[in-house]
Amino acid sequence: MLPAFLHELLWNKVRIPDEAVAQTVTDLKSMRRGTLTDNFLIVGMMDGARGMLTPDLTKDEDWFIIEQNARLAARICREGSLKGFWFDTEQYSYYRWRTDSGTPEFEADKPQGLHFPLGKDSAEVLRRRGAAWIKAIQSEFPEVKIMTTFAWSPDANGYGPLTGVIPFLDGVLEGIESPGQIIHGHENTFYFGHAKGTTHTYATENGFPGDRNRYASARSEIRGWAGLSSSPEKYNRF
Fold first, then answer.
1. Which contacts (CB < 8 Å, 24+ apart) does range 230-233 have?
2. Phi, psi for 121 (deg, rounded to 5)
3. Distance from the CA of 63 to the CA of which of 74, 125, 178, 207 falls in 20 to 30 A?
């Protein structure tokens, strides 16, 4: 049985029909946003069917469905006056993914020895699919903004759920055209300003201060990670 959350359906082998999101678009059009003007649609890279419908990116028939779903999501954003995608690149799906080695561990009743979804594909395949993905999106919504959780950063090295993400995003960077935009969200900064005792601060002494110096340091790090991409010049432009 498939889950009800759209972001868990976009990255699998089931095409989402237009009528399934028609009411969502209607609701977005009528929503009163007040001062919350920059709203995004969450999009993930996980198969919400607990691994049963994970696409094989080497198969054109699987990829065709991913492209169709990407266009649908882009159309939701355009018609619903959203800025674009809040793109969660961690492939946690049905894996027990917090391991010391970075290799996924599975519950006893799950298959053994599988890679994270993007981990089984070559960098060439991932770059090619990444470029096709953003082109499909911009065919529906040229102005789309893609705000990532994790992108080009040292976090992607040796961390299972981010396996293959950098080559895929290199393809996105290669394929994106103005006025589209990639926003390097860097999820670790999302917790800045969280006081001790709040979510994700359990291992800290004082929480995560949200002072200006901390944000300035993060911006500097993000700029410095241009060298982790396949095109530092375009990284800096987009």
1. 230/127, 230/170, 230/173, 230/174, 231/170, 231/173, 231/174
2. -105, 150
3. 178
CA atoms within 13 A on the CB side of 75: 17
The amino acid present at 45, given as its one-letter code, is M
Give the pLDDT confidence of 197-232 residue by residue, as tens digits.
776 666 677 777 777 888 888 899 999 999 999 999
Separation between Cα atoms, residue 221 and residue 200, nearest integer Å: 21
Total structural domains within the chain: 1
Report the predicted TM-score, pTM, of the whole model to 2 decimal places. 0.86
Q: Does residue 69 lie within any of the structural domains?
A: yes
Q: Are 222 and 186 in contact (CB under 8 A)?
A: yes
Identify the sign of the CA torsion 129, 131, 132, 136.
positive
Enumerate helices (H) and strands (E) in the chain, giving the number of each: 6, 4
Distance CA 62, CA 83 (A): 27
Domain around 133: 6-237
Determine how many CB atoms are found less than 10 A away from the CB of residue 236: 10
Helix, strand, coil tally for the chain in percent (to 5): 45, 10, 50
